Amino acid sequence: MESLSTLAAQLGIANLFGRGFVSVIITFLTAWLFTWLFIPRLREFAVQVGWADQPNERRLNKEPLPNAGGLAIFAGFLISVVVAWTLRPIVVEIVNIQVLTILLGASLLVLVGFIDDQFGLSPLSRLLVQVLAAALLIVNGLKIDFNAIPFLPIIPDIINGPLSIFLTVLWIVGLTNAVNLMDGVDGVVGGVGFVVSTVLLATAAQFTDRAAAVVLLAGLSGAALGYLRHNFNPSRIIMGDAGAYLFGYTLAAVSLLGTLKFSAGASLLVPLVVLALPVLDTTQVVIGRLARGIRNPLGHPDKTHIHHRVLARTSSARRTAVILWGVALICGMAGMAFQGVRWPVIVATGLLIVLCLWFVAYRRMRAQDREVRPQENP
């Protein structure tokens, strides 16, 4: 028992059987199992009411595909956070308010994303809601302080205030849309969302002032893994804008979460490195569209995304997803190293991520074999 506790301490776990660590595990498992078990029932209902994406020249599905997976992810995430709150209430009042603010903003974007999935909304209306969700964070103390960003000059408060607000809105809206734009191949966003959430979870767990962030990331990570079981190619359900907005917004917002004395601006390096894949993808797409004379680069979908380019080379949605998972994991481990996380923690996190992804992919492929076999032997 003593050797096990010593090993746990090397991985950043102060008390292997303590209330904090156990609550994180329960939060993760609650989100994972609820999302895993809930999606088949939600899928049946979505098929009945017509919540589905129709085939077109940009989509890979050949028949209507239920697009309500984001609701299941959000439900699993929210229920797990409630469970965690019951097990270990957050005692710092300001952080409590900030967590509620993140949940409120995420709820708003999930609702708007779901409406857009089913009925369609204009790019301007979606953007306005995203800015409103970012404003919710700002008025509750979650923002980037330009003067707290390392290696940049200190500027007067009269300039720092508006600039910090602008950077925060850009950070939230940019990452929300970056993750959404990646959602074009089965399993990509679900897997990348799981990788990023788990990496940020392992990183936040190394600091005593980020307990609230750990709880939210544990729930998001578990929900992503539960969803991925049904989304790895061939997908039985997709998350739609609702799920992609949830991942992008929550990951961006949690990177700003801390205590009263925590400097949010100095914490952005790790999320930026960890989220390098969606950030670079969106950047190259926007630049390419602007170069082609497209005035509204986010309102003209095409097949110039990284996942489309990889898919064209591999001709396999499964291989494309696995390759991008690997890229996200490499970025994540690099981000952990930049943060100064110890190598045993980095290696253990990487191995855990690989094991979990292999498990859900294997389970999905086995389920697919069982689905195909009766059709081949009627």
UniProtKB/TrEMBL annotation:
It comes from Deinococcus aerophilus. It is a multi-pass membrane protein. Its main location: membrane. It is found in: Cell membrane. CDD domains: GT_WecA_like. It comes from the Bacteria. Keywords: Cell membrane, Membrane, Transferase, Transmembrane, Transmembrane helix. The lineage of its organism: Bacteria, Thermotogati, Deinococcota, Deinococci, Deinococcales. The chain crosses the membrane at residues 20-39, 68-88, 94-115, 127-146, 158-175, 187-205, 211-230, 242-262, 268-287, 321-338, 344-362. This is Undecaprenyl-phosphate alpha-N-acetylglucosaminyl 1-phosphate transferase. GO terms for molecular function: transferase activity. It holds the Pfam family Glycos_transf_4.
